[in-house]
Write a structure and sequence with these properties.
about 290 residues, 2 domains, elongated, transferase, HemK-like, Release factor glutamine methyltransferase, methyltransferase
Length: about 290
């Protein structure tokens, strides 16, 4: 089917799907529909009921512009400005990683561990959009978090999301390279991070949506992908309470290497968990040597 002169909302969505298909963009039908919902501020029911109506010219131009941007590789979430994560909505832009389902595995594990450990104070290193700190604080009502990032632009996004979810009293942000600027004397129950873990070689193989539009410094350490695990694991020992938990998201092939890093630094109870695809994705450990 070729739509040279679309008129209805449905025809414009099919046009959008064709354009995205031609450019090889994944999930073309889904993205074409989601962008139409975004343009019209429709929910699924409204779109179904109104889809045979004519799309007015102003909306046509907006939709065409968004489809063109999406066809060039700009992620859908950067076009709409939002991404859902663990049932919450987050603002995103080109300065932060888009929250992903893989990271939900990390959150779910920490929520489960909280049943035994009752986290009260935590640090999130490389917070980006703030999705880890915010989701943990949202679901663990007694938890306060320090959300750290080296990027001031990322921290602006995190602060917006913290305010959006009414968590200003329980999450504060800090600009720091890992824990260099962290000066709190009271030790914490939890240190969590989704650091730049993609190797310099592998990062070049990522889709244009990722390597072309998400912050490179949040994706790769420009080395073997393990440098931040080494730095954080060493530094965290000075800030964790006895029995405190360190938790990471990791790459699919990094389980063995990060396990070794943690054990060599003296951590115990190392636990490796897979994502929904069965790949290594989360690792946690505890610190008992204070």
């Amino acid at each position: 089917m070729s739509l040279c002169n679309p008129q209805s909302i449905f025809e414009w969505m099919k046009w959008g799907e064709e354009i995205l298909d031609e450019k090889g963009r994944p999930d073309s039908a889904i993205d074409a529909k989601l962008l139409m919902k975004y343009v019209l501020a429709f929910n699924e029911t409204q779109l179904l009921l109104e889809r045979q109506k004519r799309l007015d010219e102003g909306m046509q131009q907006i939709y065409k512009s968004l489809i063109e941007k999406r066809s060039s590789g700009i992620p859908l979430q950067q076009l709409t400005g939002t991404q859902e994560f663990m049932g919450l909505e987050f603002q995103v832009n080109e300065h932060v990683l888009i929250p992903r389902q893989d990271t939900e595995t990390l959150i779910e594990e920490l929520l489960e561990q909280n049943k035994n450990f009752s986290f009260k104070r935590g640090i999130d290193i490389g917070t980006g959009s703030g999705c880890i700190s915010i989701t943990l604080a949202y679901y663990i009502k007694e938890l306060t978090m320090c959300a750290i990032d080296i990027s001031e632009e990322a921290l602006k996004v995190a602060r917006h999301n913290i305010q959006k979810h009414d968590l200003e009293k329980r999450i504060y942000t800090l600009k720091s390279d890992v824990l260099e600027n962290y000066a709190e004397e009271e030790k914490v129950d939890l240190i969590v991070s989704n650091p730049p873990y993609i190797s310099k070689e592998e990062v070049e193989t990522l889709m244009i949506e990722v390597i072309g539009h998400e912050p490179r410094e949040a994706l790769t350490d420009e080395g073997d992908g393990l440098s931040f695990y080494k730095r954080i694991s060493k530094a965290a020992k000075s800030y964790l309470k006895k029995g405190g938990v360190i938790a990471y998201e990791i790459g699919y092939n990094q389980g063995k290497a990060v396990t070794t890093i943690l054990k060599e630094e003296g951590y115990s109870d190392v636990k490796l968990l897979p994502d929904l695809s069965g790949n290594d994705r989360v690792i946690t450990a505890r610190w008992f040597m204070n």
